Amino acid sequence: DFIVTVVFSFLWLVSSSAWAKGLSDVKVATDPDEVLLLMSACKQQSNKCLPVRSPVMSSLNTSVVFGYLNFILWAGNIWFVFKETGWHSSGQRHASDTMEKQSSSYNQGGYNQDSYGPAGGYNQQGSYGQVGEYGQSQSYSQSGPTSFANQI
């Protein structure tokens, strides 16, 4: 996953840069003033050529911005994917070994939580005898809630 994320991030950077360069070339090629200079009819003094309107490039500029924002998103995701790899956890082993040595030097006694078992907690045993539809005897037993505790 890490390598794929790095490759996609790099591809977003390259493709966004290529699209930005291509858009820049399109803007130069479609500039109304430049187009008028290239037309032979507009070179004659008797003809007066003026652009009617300039091209709207705002949506194309927005696509370039979102391309670079997507690259930033992928590049930022590299760190989180790296944390999930074995390479990140191998660097953390030394710190965890130190923590294990420190925690083993303290003598921590366990807590006796047996008093919360069936004798100390809520426990109800009952039998309810019921007669079924065709004279069959049925009995149900009920026990109280069970308490579980995490021990360190």
UniProtKB/TrEMBL annotation:
Membrane-spanning parts: 65-82
GO cellular component: synaptic vesicle membrane
Keyword Lipid biosynthesis: no
Pfam families xref list: MARVEL
Signal peptide range in chain numbering: 1-20
Protein location: Membrane
InterPro entries: Marvel (IPR008253), Synaptophysin/porin (IPR001285)
Keyword Heme in record: no
Keyword list, A-Z: Glycoprotein, Membrane, Signal, Transmembrane, Transmembrane helix
Disordered: annotated segments: 127-152
Bias kind Low complexity: ranges: 127-144
Membrane topology type: Multi-pass membrane protein
Domain annotation MARVEL: ranges: 1-86
Family label: Belongs to the synaptophysin/synaptobrevin family.
Protein name stated in the entry: SYNPR protein
Organism: Rhinopomastus cyanomelas (Common scimitarbill)
Name of the gene encoding the protein in the UniProt record: Synpr_1
